[in-house]
Amino acid sequence: MVNRICVLLAGGLGMVVVLGMMAGGAIANSTPTDADSPPALSTESPAPPTESTQPTESTQPTESTQTQAAPVTLFPVLVGGKVGYIDASGAIVIPPQFETGNPFSAPGALPNGQQLASVQLNGRWGYIDPSGTMVIPPQYDGAGPFSEGLAIVALDGKVGYIDSTGTVVIPIEHTPVLFAALENFSDGLVVVYQDGRYGYMNQQGEMAIEPQFEAAGPFSEGLAWVVVNGRVGYINRSGAMVISPRFEPAQLFASGNFSEGLAWVMVEGRIGYIDRHGLFAIQPRFDFISAADFTEGRAAAVLAPGFLHGYIDHTGTFVIPPQFSLAGEFHDGLAPVFSDDPSFGGSTRGVYINSAGEVVIQTQASHLGNFDHGLAWITGAESGYIDQTGRFVWQLQR
Known about the structure:
Blueprint: E1 5-8, E2 14-17, E3 20-22, E4 25-28, E5 75-79, E6 82-86, E7 92-98, E8 100-101, E9 117-121, E10 124-128, E11 134-140, E12 142-147, E13 150-155, E14 158-162, E15 168-174, E16 189-194, E17 197-202, E18 207-213, E19 215-216, E20 224-228, E21 231-235, E22 241-247, E23 263-267, E24 270-274, E25 280-287, E26 299-303, E27 308-312, E28 318-324, E29 326-327, E30 335-338, E31 350-353, E32 359-362, E33 365-369, E34 376-380, E35 383-386, E36 392-396
Parallel strand pairs: 4-33
Antiparallel strand pairs: 1-2, 3-4, 5-6, 6-7, 8-9, 9-10, 10-11, 12-13, 13-14, 14-15, 16-17, 17-18, 19-20, 20-21, 21-22, 23-24, 24-25, 26-27, 27-28, 29-30, 30-31, 31-32, 33-34, 34-35, 35-36
């Protein structure tokens, strides 16, 4: 399912993650530090947490590992009102000490294998490395994730971008509305909003594609969707329209991002998939209630009249028949789904399926997260991180 980050300008700069919701269940693409998904850029502390049942012994290294570091996968957790980080086994690696903390940057987001996470300490935001060392001191009102070497930060009501050393690359002098969608950089460009139109800024802070579009999405596989005169087309990094605007905008998200060579588009209220030449690889026949980018060779799709979700392959064939009330993306070989079928335990029970549609993990959860590096966050009668066998490696005590 798609999600998007939007700016809220009430009382300061903040963010909210838009999640797919349906039939008593929820599926999210972000990793929370409590029962709800945290903002990726925040100026507020989280609600008081419940205590974890995990031990709090520290295995914190003493050396920073910024340069040529081997990838380390850590996950944020709340213990006693403070955020720390665990590894995939559930062992605490960075002791709980921060007011708020976000996931570490994705592999490849920073040079030389670096990984940084934004954390809040004494009301200010900075960045730590996987050893827990504060490599960019807390000084900002808000701090976002790194992508393509840069991260958005907020200070005194203005925003800009820094690199992994903390050096300001794009001056912190822009109003938040300029980066209205707060997109990460992709293909060297970020979406900006100016004078009622959307365009793209490069990593030097220059307007690479002048604001001229009614809406715009991030670049993916070299192309980005834009809206012109109420129709969706696709541009390349030079701003040239390479797929003419002829598709309908679909709800909040005007069109799909290219993924695995295909992007979803809407025609006469139906969803199909085009290739990079703008030709239909999958004819429009799916209901617009849900449209998803391809991940791991599968995309969730819906057919009327039952409006149930299934999964299609790159030919548009249902390889997992429509049977779910809600269906998420495949990550690490598994996808979260909800079903009204009694064999799944009813619509309030979420399960994880494999690429063949077989149930691998059954839960009592009402909120399922995507798997990421072997763990997924679930929320319900029991909440916490589970591994790919369904075993809790970290559990919250209600």
